[in-house]
Recover the amino acids of this structure.
């Protein structure tokens, strides 16, 4: 039923969508130096297809930026004068130095000043620009002025074909300090040869297509094992099943999100919200599963005891912090800018992640010590493999975070936009790899119950809410030492204890 509703929602969006990428709804100009600016968009755009010799050429191979109904509005009380022009400036990021200038080596300015006008290099009140060394036709600058008593000024309809692959930026700029409370309305359409998806996001559509296929393969393996040995399934395996299911939905929704965006030019808000929510739920459940495994839930202890409320509280807090962060990052995002979330949104999710890691490894250390002390060798072997995989994932994550910081610090102007998709894709691949390791270690099998908690006294753990330590015997006085018999394991004919025999059983 939910799937039918989702398909109906996507169909409705496709019927009512327009080919619009950047919509301006009363954006106000902000002062930047001696200019007043509105950022109109930034996108990586591939050059128009040079020929149509491909077997399956794009339906519309042209790349362009088209201006539609761009209107500037000023209040009536500020309409009693003719203004300097309001200009649209479009440039490729490598040509950024062609915008602006300075007189006699002074402070760089965007708007032409009186001193520069006297030198004859520009017209006062207009944006300073000079032709690009590689392409004399760029940057593109054109505009419109307010006449006396006009409250609206409409920018001429214009379409610019893109003949060079690059990161393109659009700014609306004016240099007239008398134009107070000026706003811009309308839209611009940005298109790549393969669709309306921005160049930085385009590889993610293919990536999520492959990830959907990967989750399907993992699901086939897991659900086939689950169906074969459903009588042997224990609670931890049900949690893993939930994570796999959530991952399949997340990957499919992200693919639909990018596919719809590429087809129509409008980011489908509903699909994006569902994709973000499924992804956040999956990450939260995955972290909780890893934490519970580290504590020995279902394997060496039947419940979490008094720790349940703390685990649930941590998971709920992480879900809220991550959901808000991802919604701000993705919903309605159409520009190829590297993240717009503020520090106060990123910091809580990062701190909670660190807390998860510390708690997981602290619990793992305690669980390994107890398994070693109890000589539960099969469970100990599994937990050692799990610990190694988790430690490797953390080390790789730290290394990738360092690389990500290096990448972003050296790409201030998004010149490496064609490679930027690798950064978010890596985290999806890493989480999928760790999930595969968990699925292999705890896959349903005929003798899966050997990994579970046995209520025979040998798996008894302390129910303490904070330390998770073994139950320690009370001190024995010296006069009672002789009354305590030596504890000796029952030996079988070959000299092994019954516990060791039980632990050494194989499928």
């Amino acid at each position: 039923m939910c799937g039918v509703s989702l398909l109906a929602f996507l169909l409705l969006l496709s019927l009512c969508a327009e080919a619009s990428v950047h919509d301006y709804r009363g954006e106000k100009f902000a002062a930047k130096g001696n200019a007043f600016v509105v950022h109109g968009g930034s996108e990586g755009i591939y050059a128009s297809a040079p020929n149509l010799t491909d077997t399956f050429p794009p339906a519309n191979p042209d790349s362009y930026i088209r201006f539609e109904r761009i209107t500037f509005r000023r209040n009536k009380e500020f309409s009693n004068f003719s203004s300097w022009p309001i200009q649209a400036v479009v440039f490729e990021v490598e040509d950024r130095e062609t915008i602006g200038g300075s007189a006699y080596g002074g402070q760089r300015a965007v708007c032409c000043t009186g001193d520069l006008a006297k030198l004859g290099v520009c017209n006062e009140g207009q944006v300073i620009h000079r032709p690009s060394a590689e392409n004399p036709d760029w940057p593109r600058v054109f505009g419109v002025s307010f006449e006396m008593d006009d409250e609206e000024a409409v920018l001429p309809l214009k379409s610019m074909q893109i003949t060079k692959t690059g990161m393109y930026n659009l700014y609306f700029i004016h240099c007239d300090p008398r134009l107070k409370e000026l706003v811009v309305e309308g839209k611009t359409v940005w298109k790549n040869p393969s669709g309306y998806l921005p160049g930085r996001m385009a590889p993610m559509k293919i990536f999520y297509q492959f990830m959907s296929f990967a989750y399907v393969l993992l699901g086939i393996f897991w659900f086939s094992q689950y169906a074969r040995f459903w009588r042997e399934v224990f609670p931890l395996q049900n949690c893993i099943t939930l994570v796999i299911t959530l991952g399949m939905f997340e990957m499919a929704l992200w693919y639909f999100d990018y596919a719809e965006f590429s087809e129509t030019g409008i980011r489908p808000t509903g699909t994006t919200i569902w994709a973000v929510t499924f992804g956040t739920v999956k990450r939260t459940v995955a972290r909780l599963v890893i934490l519970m495994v580290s504590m020995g839930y279902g394997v060496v202890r039947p419940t979490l005891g008094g720790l349940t409320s703390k685990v649930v509280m941590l998971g709920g807090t992480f879900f809220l912090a991550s959901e808000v962060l991802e919604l701000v990052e993705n919903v309605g995002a159409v520009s190829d800018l590297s993240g717009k979330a503020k520090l106060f949104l990123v910091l809580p999710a990062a701190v909670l992640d660190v807390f998860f890691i510390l708690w997981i490894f602290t619990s793992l250390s305690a669980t390994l010590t107890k398994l070693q002390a109890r000589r539960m060798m099969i469970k100990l072997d599994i937990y050692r493999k799990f610990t190694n995989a988790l430690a490797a994932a953390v080390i790789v994550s730290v290394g990738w975070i360092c690389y990500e910081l290096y990448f972003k610090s050296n790409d201030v102007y998004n010149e490496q936009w064609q490679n930027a998709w690798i950064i978010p894709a890596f985290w999806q691949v890493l989480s999928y790899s760790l999930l595969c390791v968990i699925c292999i270690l705890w896959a349903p099998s005929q003798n899966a119950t050997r990994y579970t908690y046995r209520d025979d006294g040998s798996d008894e753990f302390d129910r303490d809410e904070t330390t998770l330590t073994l139950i320690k015997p009370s001190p024995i006085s010296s006069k009672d030492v002789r009354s305590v018999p030596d504890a000796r394991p029952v030996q079988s004919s070959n000299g092994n204890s019954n516990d060791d025999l039980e632990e050494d059983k194989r499928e």
